[in-house]
Write a structure and sequence with these properties.
By secondary structure, this protein is α/β, with parallel strands linked by helices. The protein has a domain of 191 residues: Rossmann fold, CATH 3.40.50.150. Helix content is 40%, strand content 23%. The protein is built from 10 helices and 8 strands. Strands 1, 2, 3, 4, 5, 6, 7 and 8 form an 8-stranded mixed β-sheet that branches. The model has no long low-confidence stretch (mean pLDDT 93).
């Protein structure tokens, strides 16, 4: 089985999100459905106020950034950064206020000459290859007593939308993802998430739990939606399967969704964790 390589992974992430960003924005993030009900929760919990200077890390298509720009007013400023230019292109079209700026930057390489009052990151932390490096970077550019607020998906059991299919896929294509590849469930429990921030030196850590629901429709809708959302690099992986293997994989996935199905509709529970933490003292270079 291939081993995880951060450089190859980042290249794939960039290509995948350049391809997937329009659908992700129009059908998920901008509608604030299912797990994206967390967007409003994030803004409230963050305590961001008028006049603040905010960094929106892994900003994607700018959904959180847009809400921040309204919260901070003309006297504030928000900077959105993401590793993929595709999402940033959408974010720029969707955010037209003068108090918003976007940049294509790898989170592990961010550099700023000003300090931020607050940092936000929705559904991005799990995918950073070196999370500790990113969090230490954040501490350098976050004011003393400045707050970071992050949102992550729950575990495989508490946010089964992904795992119902991925568990079946990995049975038939074990090399689908190289060993050690970051996943959506990487920080899926309060304990795992809190420990990561403690390790980076943050204080006053609080983790909030929210339980949402998401209905993709029938099983057929769910199955079709998964493959529609797959980007080209991942679709190629399925070429190794013959027709009988593909059918067996589909049946296994359907079996995995049975306990979430009622009256022909699949209704997934979706746990979301929101963490806030304070930078006790800005790290120096």
């Amino acid at each position: 089985m291939p081993r995880f390589d951060p450089r190859t992974y980042k290249k794939r992430i960039i290509l995948s999100w350049n391809e997937f960003a329009p659908k992700y924005h129009s059908e998920w993030a901008s509608k604030e459905i299912g797990p994206f009900k967390s967007t409003s929760k994030l803004i409230t919990i963050s305590g961001i106020k008028k006049g603040d200077f905010v960094l929106d890390l892994a900003c994607g298509t700018g959904v959180v950034t847009k809400k921040i720009s309204s919260k901070i007013g003309f006297s504030g400023k928000v900077v959105g950064v993401d590793i993929s230019p595709g999402p940033i292109k959408i974010a720029k079209k969707w955010n037209t206020k003068k108090n918003v700026k976007f940049f294509v930057i790898d989170a592990e390489k961010i550099k700023f000459d000003k300090e931020f009052d607050a940092v936000t990151c929705q559904y991005g932390l799990m995918f950073f290859p070196n999370v500790q490096l990113v969090l230490r970077k954040v501490r350098k550019f976050l004011k003393s007593d400045g707050k970071i607020t992050v949102v992550v998906h729950g575990s495989k059991k508490t946010a089964p939308y992904f795992s119902c299919i991925s568990n079946a896929v990995l049975k038939f294509i074990p090399e689908f993802l190289p060993l050690g590849t970051p996943t959506v469930h990487r920080f899926g429990t309060k304990n795992l998430l809190k420990k990561e921030f403690e390790k980076a030196g943050f204080k006053k850590i609080k983790v909030y739990e929210f339980n949402f629901k998401y209905n993709p429709g029938t099983f057929q809708d769910y199955w079709r939606d998964y493959f529609t959302n797959l980007t080209t690099p991942l679709k190629r992986k399925f070429k190794s399967l013959n027709s009988s293997q593909f059918i067996a994989m589909k049946k296994m996935t359907e079996k995995n969704t049975k306990k979430f199905t009622k009256n022909g509709k699949v209704i997934f529970p979706w746990r979301v964790l929101i963490l806030t933490a304070v930078n006790p003292k800005k790290l120096s270079d």
